[in-house]
Amino acid sequence: MCGIVGAIRAKNNVVDFLTAGLQRLEYRGYDSSGIAVLKADNAIDRVRRVGRVAQMAEAAREANTQGLLGIGHTRWATHGGVNEPNAHPHVSGELIAVVHNGIIENFESERERLSALGYTFESQTDTEVIAHAIHAEYQNNHDLMTAVRAACARFHGAYAIGVIAADKPNELVAARMGCPLLVALGEEDTFIASDVSAVIAETRRVIYLEDGDVVRLTASGVADLCDSDGQPVSRAEQRSALSLASLELGPYSHFMQKEIHEQPRAVADTAEALIDDMFSPAIFGEQAEAILRRTKGIKILACGTSYYAAMTAKYWLESIAKLPCDVEIASEYRYRPVIADPDVLVITISQSGETLDTMEALKYAKAQGHRYSLSICNVMESALPRASDLVFYTRAGAEIGVASTKAFTTQLVALFGLAVCLGKLRGLVDEEATTNYLEALRHLPGSVQHALNLEPQITAWAQAFAKRDHALFLGRGIHYPIALEGALKLKEITYIHAEAYPAGELKHGPLALVDENMPVVVIAPNDALLDKVKANMQEVGARGGKLYVFSDDDSDITASEGISVIRTPRHVGVLSPIVHVVAAQLLAYHTALARGTDVDKPRNLAKAVTVE
Description:
The chain has an eight-stranded antiparallel sheet with strand order 3-2-4-1-10-9-11-14, with helices on one face. A six-stranded antiparallel sheet has the order 5-6-7-8-12-13. The protein is built from 18 helices and 24 strands. The protein has 612 residues and is of the alpha/beta class.
């Protein structure tokens, strides 16, 4: 889970681009960072620092680092501790410099092989193996692209690699297998990056590399590109629609705050296609109608926040479309024997479309016999959509904060749309029901905005939460996954230990944790389960627990001693989970502010999880 940039320019110093690009990619990892630049005398100048990119950038300025060719990296540690020797780029023989995202699974055997050849290792990383392996191959014919291809053939695992050689001032080589990497084309400059956000200030012309690709770049563009079989190929150039403004904070203090407040627009943009096409299967792809008509069940594979979106969707798919739905944690699913039915549609959910566990789970599902797949993703042309038969792109826009917010709510919109679409195809959703569902989607952005308007009240709650080290979240039915997501947000960015349970499970164990020091957050919408939730609240109150209740404007829950209540808008029915999660997001955000934690870059976490 790291960020890579690289550039080869005809005239201009690459350092400003490298440091600016890394700062845009810092959400992918921020333990350490570094750059390697080829100087005018063809020596590699390397600058590395533990900590944030700004510290490394300042060191590069002080050293007056300059050159037309360079690579850079921001690290989230996997192999080895957080220290400068483990920071990228890694160099071999003062000749080869490498940056790498991913994991080389056979690095230990490669390390032994290279040690036997006389190479000395200065770090604990798997990446230094890559640098030495390329250096060893480069001795044969001094062709950098050939050396990279030969070295990559030895590696097992996932990687995106950028490579420069001290005696090749006019080329930059890159390779991809399982981790995202793109080429971007300027007028007299060529770039590589893990994410288009790193290059958008320079150009919108991008080429997405595919698994197995190795490319040689010059300042004028792509010189050579071959696939995993070593055959010359071409990849389509595309124009990125990403807005530079979406990558800037504007009037907000943090990206998470900005992204929470962008949710009315993100929800509206994502719902637009569903509303305009009245839940037509065509919005999921050309083959969608034929595939969805033969679908007899659903299996959803996801991780983290996306997994909670899947858990929420299970209620919609089973109640609206009457289809059995299994939800699996992707990292667990692919390590057990499974029963695969070709008529069960596999759905993968990922904000980035590059989540390695989910990608590998999809491959496993296909290998076991699942015939068709659908990807719900926020990033165009990422790995999961390319590997799927059907795709729905959410329109959340760039999400920079590590703790997902608008990606989650737009995933829910997409999954709701799928449930209604399947219900229509199965003859279970008539014209009147379709109209009601369309109206619910049309009013949803306004309801989300009403939830955002509760921010002052939620901020007051946050002051109390900031003094606690533990919290419980409760919900029932379709709102239990929302309690899980609320607890996840709180623990991610405040470091408060938070757990979520179905409210009816309190008496089966968690109630032992409740006392006057345990805040208990309850998601209590005015639905059919409200009376059950109120009974569970009584259990908490009887043990001296402090209740913090997110209810609806038309519910009859009232504040009293030990019970604080914030009312979200009038109950919005089937889409209530999307409204209630916004309140939980705001609680986490303002508690983090009160505790003084790093909201956008919480410790030990990174945004794009491209390692196992």
